[in-house]
Design goal:
The complex is a heterodimer of chains A (501) and B (640). With 501 residues, chain A is mainly alpha-helical. Chain A has 20 helices and two strands. Chain A has a two-stranded antiparallel sheet with strand order 1-2. Chain A starts with a helix and ends with a helix. Chain B is mainly alpha-helical. In chain B, a hairpin with a 5-residue loop joins strand 1 and strand 2. Classes of the chains: A mainly alpha (501), B mainly alpha (640).
């Protein structure tokens, strides 16, 4: 059995296991065990990957397996990983287990909740291991659709509206994406011969430039919608505000990364010439959204809105870095995805836990919470410091790699765009400190809050897992950055053929 | 060579371990124990630092008559590209070793002092954890062997300062002050980062030993290409200096420093007087060869910003009544003086007098300013107030504090033979040879300094007999011993032959006192003291009369020239009201509005066309038959 397929199989088996259970307690236990095994498998995968590389295996993708699926359309179930996907898989498994523990207290339709959650995660895992565009798209949809149910059923506030909006906007993105993928497929054999969905095979040929010009923007925007590309990000504030805790965690932590990952693995990698031509449009959009999201976050009153806007800013930086098309910046983009995934998941977990205690998410209704819930307070501060890019935590490593990569371009356009993006570090500090100051510090505003209980054991597991990951990357970024950077080389070389500077 | 100093890695690591221990397990330990643990840790660092200083200056062979730069530790931490990588390393050279001594001395004294001062406070172990974090970051900063490592620790120092200013986190003023300090310095650090970006892409390296090599290739690059009349190198160093100006509270980025006094007083002594705030001076000194050789214009900026800040702060200090704020402005003024020292310095041998003097003053200032703050802490501890208007006649109650405070005041006023006389004199000499205007400004500052310090001194220890609720009593020994130790250093550190130890190129030179400049400056200092004595030794109406005479000037200075208001306007009005609120509105109503608009359009459209599928047979039949009729009609018509 291929270890990669195991990553899809374990969630499915877990779901099958849960189906036979009636008891809430057992359901969450089985989910935790299943996802715990998944985490171990992911760790083993990282280990196997690194030792394989150490042994001198220089293949672009490792552990490749291919099974025929629809012969007539050349659709295969092809899996394989490089350092980038391994890193994303590790991220996903960490966020998922933290999400399971964060939703320990879901009472309503527990079984169905965990099934949807795990189904979603299996889609994400499948997406990251796929090398076949069609399979990849399929997994993408598997990941997106349970979101509708999760928000619509277990959400809060105007949940039907938010679920509908989120799903429709993402489906709109998928529609563009499908056209883009089919466009790639039908142009995958310009010299005649067999058409292909296989990413590696397509990357070896050059898609005609006219086709690229048409299909690149479709694919890029299609993924960009999920990656919160301005101005297609507005599903995010509403969606997060209504989503239950674990769903926000998974969504911002992992699902949004599908957008960034797809944007460079499919759109940029396969259509580098068009990417090079059109990058300037998206660089403007993303560098604006980095600052725009940060400014938007300053005046928000709802914790989840603050985080949603902050995600727009941070994810803007991901797409910004991808568009810089050099090794350093693109490595930074992946690091930023991982870093943002971890800390956003942490933020949403904490927001959920705080909301569960105070029954409000409006920051001016709270205050002085550090005194009563010191554990959650301290973790919130750590998450905030990670978000504003404090050295020693993951955000700093990612942001600096991006800034230095982007600055490698010597022309004024790229440099000015970089400076615009760099300035976000100050604005981020403003909104983070505003939240920390209002929410956690100062005198206690509401007498009812004097009796709040600090974190329970499952909440501690959930948050500590994420904090440890954030700190580990921040303190010792070398191996992760090298693992990603080495795998970035084939992609960068392909991009360089389009634009040798 | 490197192996000899391998143990130096312990110097930053011990405080880090203490931070982790106290931070993670502090609440399990007894408060007293965590305090002691932190203090012992710092004690070890103190011993190691003095040992390193001895070994470096006296037991290590010089290369070609110059102190060598020793890399005691080096590893790659993160690789950006093949040429650019961030290392974590330890660089020992005269200024970093000197800073080790400064930081470990003051930090150790503050650790001891806080055992008494913070006794019984809630969060005692948290306080010591943060102190350890700060010591770790500050030591890492000065030992950095590349500019990016310095930036990393620079940020960590900033966050420890934030945590310590906001130590009393339930007090809204402390929360605001910590926020302000962080954001203002963060803004300055943006400049620093941009400076590093420009600098590293021009020279291709972060490494100080390559960057600062006067004969090296890096130093010459980028000085040719010009932008707005200044070379790229000059721009990058001005940006780097922006970071330094933020940390060192230079005008106009100084506004956070007075507010930072909301933190516990030992913190003010350690961070906001002796160590962190001089990081900016250290940064410029660290990059000094680059400044002087490839960007002398940037050095002019340093000199003028320094000079202006020193007089600006000195004027404000004359009007403040909160003793910690007086000291804060005094710190700003003295750091301005250090910046002047660097700004008017040349390179090599006696030319580099200003540089040497600046480092010398950094050293003496750290001792006497820490002493002043700790003394102020002992006073506040005794009378439970920060305001000098609520004090007076304390010399009877606090004899040790009184004497040590007096020593510190005489030191800062530049009276011989106290230490600052020597260091300040050298800066003035360097200024005299370089720029007469700056020299004149610093003479005035010398007079103002003596005046405001003795205004403070007489108001606290002499002046009106205040009636206290509780009879003030002298602080316990854990607090007075650090005072005595620092007073000792303030008196005698002037005799350290700095020109033989810390010079621009590492080669010692003969320093001497230029009495023709020193005597007038002592005289000016004495005049300042006498004026203060006349006005404040006995309670008189003189101060009010003077204030009334210079009504407008006094009002402006008392209100700190309204800098806070300017900043409030920028942040509250411009950023909050004119940028963020519109952005948020735009996002909700225009961007999201158009998304919702699309869905509404789709909805409306489908509402219209749903009539096509109404399910009514009659309607279908009607449409069918009329269609057939229409087609028949058309065909017949077209055929004819």
């Amino acid at each position: 059995m291929n270890i990669l397929s195991l990553l899809v199989l374990i969630p499915l088996l877990t779901i099958a296991g849960i189906l036979f259970l009636k008891d809430t307690q057992k359901t969450r236990l089985v989910s935790a065990i299943g996802m715990g095994i998944q985490l171990i498998v992911a760790a083993v995968l990282v280990f196997m990957y690194l030792s394989e590389r150490k042994a001198g295996n220089t293949d672009e993708m490792l552990f490749v397996r291919s099974y025929e699926w629809f012969k007539s359309l050349n659709i295969y179930y092809t899996v394989g990983v490089d350092g980038i996907s391994v890193a994303m898989i590790a991220l996903t498994s960490i966020v998922v287990i933290a999400g399971i523990f964060a939703s320990w207290q879901v009472e309503n339709l527990t079984r169905e909740f965990f099934i949807s959650l795990i189904l979603l995660s299996s889609g994400v895992f499948g997406f990251f291991i796929s090398l076949d565009l069609f399979t990849m798209f399929l997994f993408y949809e598997v990941a997106v659709i349970p979101m509708y149910l999760l928000i619509g059923i277990w959400g809060s506030g105007p949940k039907e509206y938010s679920a509908m909006k989120l799903t429709l906007m993402l489906m709109g993105g998928s529609a563009l994406l499908l056209v883009g993928i089919l466009g790639i497929y039908f142009n995958s054999a310009p010299g005649g011969g067999e058409l292909s969905f296989n990413i590696l095979e397509i990357s070896k040929i050059q898609i005609p430039i006219e086709a690229q010009r048409f299909f690149f923007p479709l694919t890029f925007v299609g993924f960009g919608v999920l990656g919160a590309l301005f101005p297609f990000h507005t599903w995010s504030p509403d969606g997060h505000a209504s989503a239950p805790t674990a769903v926000s965690m998974l969504h911002a932590g992992v699902l949004m990364k599908l957008g960034g990952y797809g944007a460079f693995r499919v759109a940029m990698f396969l259509m580098p010439e068009a990417a090079d031509e059109m990058a300037w449009i998206f660089i403007i959009l993303t560098s604006v959204s980095v600052v725009y999201g940060a400014f938007g976050a300053i005046v928000q009153k709802d914790l989840k809105y603050i985080n949603a806007y902050s995600s727009v800013s941070h994810c803007g930086l991901v797409l910004f870095a991808i568009l810089m098309m050099n090794k350093t910046a693109m490595t930074g983009a992946i690091l930023q995805m991982i870093s943002h995934g971890l800390m956003t998941a942490l933020f949403f977990a904490l927001i959920g836990m705080i909301y569960g205690r105070t029954h409000t998410r409006l920051i001016h209704e709270m205050g002085g919470l550090m005194k009563v819930i010191p554990f959650l307070g301290v973790v919130y501060v750590i998450a905030g410091l990670a978000s504003l890019g404090l050295p020693g935590l993951s955000g700093f490593v990612a942001e600096m790699t991006i800034f230095f990569g982007a600055f490698e371009h010597t022309d004024p356009f790229h440099r000015i765009a970089t400076l615009v993006a760099v300035s976000s570090i100050v604005i981020t500090a403003v909104y983070i400190l505003r939240v920390v100051g209002t929410l956690l510090l100062g005198p206690i505003k509401n007498d009812h809050f004097n009796h709040l209980e600090d974190a329970t054991w499952f909440e501690r597991i959930s948050t500590i897992t994420l904090v440890v990951a954030v700190a580990a990357i921040g303190v010792a970024p070398y191996w992760l950055s090298t693992m990603i950077g080495d795998s970035m080389l084939p992609i960068v070389n392909k991009l360089l053929t389009a634009n040798p500077f | 060579m490197t192996t000899d100093f391998g143990y130096a890695l312990l110097i930053p690591l011990i405080p880090l371990l203490m931070f982790l221990l106290l931070g993670l397990a502090g609440n399990q330990l007894k408060a007293r124990l965590s305090g002691l643990l932190g203090t012992i840790g710092l004690g070890v660092v103190f011993v190691l630092s003095y040992y390193t200083a001895y070994k470096y200056f006296f037991a290590t062979e010089k290369i070609a008559g110059a102190f060598s730069k020793i890399t005691a530790f080096d590893m790659v931490w993160l690789r950006f590209s093949d040429s650019l990588h961030i290392n974590m390393g330890i660089l020992l050279d005269p200024i970093s070793v000197m800073m080790l001594v400064v930081i470990s001395t003051v930090s150790f004294m503050v650790h001891i002092y806080s055992l008494g001062y913070m006794k019984g406070e809630v969060g005692f172990e948290r306080f010591y954890a943060f102190l350890s974090l700060f010591s770790f970051s500050m030591l890492g900063l000065v030992l950095a062997n590349n500019i990016f490592q310095m930036y990393i620790f620079w940020e960590l120092v900033g966050v420890s300062s934030f945590l310590l200013i906001g130590f009393y986190y339930q007090r809204p003023t402390a929360v605001l002050a910590s926020k302000k300090a962080f954001i203002v310095t963060r803004f300055a650090d943006l400049g620093f980062l941009i400076g590093i970006l420009l600098l590293s892409f021009n020279t291709g390296t972060f490494d100080f030993s390559i960057l600062c090599d006067p004969q090296g290739a890096a130093i010459a690059t980028g000085s040719g290409a010009a932008f707005l009349g200044l070379s790229v190198m000059t721009w990058s160093l001005i940006f780097v200096f922006m970071g330094g100006a933020g940390k060192s509270a230079m005008f106009p980025l100084h506004i956070w420093l007075p507010d930072a006094m909301e933190g516990p007083t030992p913190v003010s002594a350690l961070i906001h007087a002796a160590t962190m705030v001089v990081a900016g001076v250290y940064l410029v000194a660290r990059l000094f060869p680059v400044y002087i050789i490839s960007a002398p214009d940037a050095l002019v900026v340093v000199a003028y910003i320094g000079a202006f800040s020193s007089i600006f702060a000195a004027v404000i200090a004359c009007t403040q009544t909160d003793i910690k704020r007086v000291l804060a402005y005094s710190t700003m003024s003295q750091i301005g003086l250090m910046m002047v020292g660097l700004g008017v310095s040349g390179y090599g041998g006696h030319e580099g007098l200003g540089y040497m003097a600046s480092m010398f003053h950094l050293f003496t200032h750290a001792m006497f300013k820490a002493l002043l703050f700790l003394g102020a802490g002992a006073i506040i501890h005794a009378v439970h107030s920060n305001h000098m208007t609520e004090m007076g006649g304390l010399r009877k109650y606090l004899p040790i504090t009184h004497i040590t405070f007096l020593i510190a005041c005489l030191t800062i006023a530049g009276i011989p033979p106290f230490s600052a006389f020597f260091s300040k004199d050298e800066i003035l000499v360097a200024a005299w040879h370089h720029d007469k205007l700056i020299f004149a400004v610093e003479y005035i500052v010398a007079g103002l300094t003596a005046f405001y310090m003795f205004r403070l001194y007489f108001n606290i220890f002499w002046g009106k007999e205040t009636h206290y609720h509780h009879t003030p009593h002298e602080a316990p020994a854990v607090m007075t011993i650090p005072l005595i130790f620092l007073a000792f250093l303030s008196v005698f550190s002037g005799f350290i032959p700095f020109s033989k130890l810390v010079t621009t190129d590492g080669i010692p030179f003969e320093g001497h006192i230029d009495w023709s400049l020193a005597l007038p400056s002592v005289f000016i200092g004495l005049v300042g003291i006498i004026i203060a004595m006349v006005m404040y030794k006995k309670e008189t109406s003189l101060p009010d009369k003077v204030a009334a005479t210079f009504k407008h000037g006094y009002k402006w200075a008392f209100n700190k020239f309204y800098m806070d208001e300017v900043y409030m306007f920028v942040t509250k009005k411009i950023i909050f009201a004119y940028i963020s609120t519109p952005v948020a509105w735009f996002d909700r109503h225009i961007v999201d509005g158009s998304m919702n608009g699309i869905s509404r359009l789709t909805n409306a459209f489908s509402f219209r066309i749903r009539e096509f599928q109404s399910g009514q047979l009659q309607k279908y039949g009607f449409v069918f038959i009329s269609g057939v009729l229409l087609l028949t009609f058309l065909m017949v018509y077209l055929w004819n």
